[in-house]
Amino acid sequence: MFKGFIENISKKNKNRFSITLLVLLLMSIAVMRYLDSFLINEVSQNGIVSFELAKELSNSNEIINAWDATAKSAAGLSLGFDFLFLLIYASFISWLVYLINDRLFIKSKNIFFKKVSILLPFIVAFFDVLENIALIKLLLGDLQQKWSAMAYYFAVIKFGLLIVAISYILLGFLILVFRKKITF
Questions:
Q1: Dihedral angle over CA of 118, 11, 7, 165, nearest 10
Q2: Which of 94, 160, 167, 182 is packed most tightly, with the most Cβ within 10 A?
Q3: pLDDT by residue (tens digit) across 53-90?
Q4: Helix spans in the chain (H)
Q5: Residue 107 backbone phi and psi in degrees, to 5
Q6: What is the pLDDT of residues 59-69, one digit of tens each?
Q7: Alpha carbon 14 to chain centroid, angstroms
Q8: Do residues 26 and 18 touch, judged by C-beta distance below 8 A?
């Protein structure tokens, strides 16, 4: 995915690309946290995550009813902005996986593993899109159990795969530190 792009840029530009992705990610997280601050109450103590993991229609409906007009607007904005955010976090995580793979598997012939590990964050983003669609349907008043269940299961898959991808990055980083292939 990144290989053709990467081979044609210098180390300096790779560093700029890394920093640009990191800045975009941090800015996006700040926006998401700001919007989420309107969604936190006694019913949805974890903001949008409570809504994502409601699972049952009655829980989803209770969360929606606990939000005032401002919170509902913030939820809609959050779900809309999440379509951009998921591209940013998927790109950032995929970039980190690429960098780890590039250093760990320099001479490896296991191209399949490299490609799958780099593609994993975009698979996560796909599940995030499906989850968002279900949450938007609920927020717009299509109160059906299937949307609550769909949001829940896709959120669980998304969070599980994110844990796998982030664990892979952390483990790869530790291996590289111990092999002294990373310089600070």
A1: 0
A2: 94
A3: 999 999 999 999 999 999 999 999 999 999 999 999 99
A4: 3-7, 11-37, 48-52, 57-66, 69-104, 111-139, 145-179
A5: -105, 10
A6: 999 999 999 99
A7: 22
A8: no
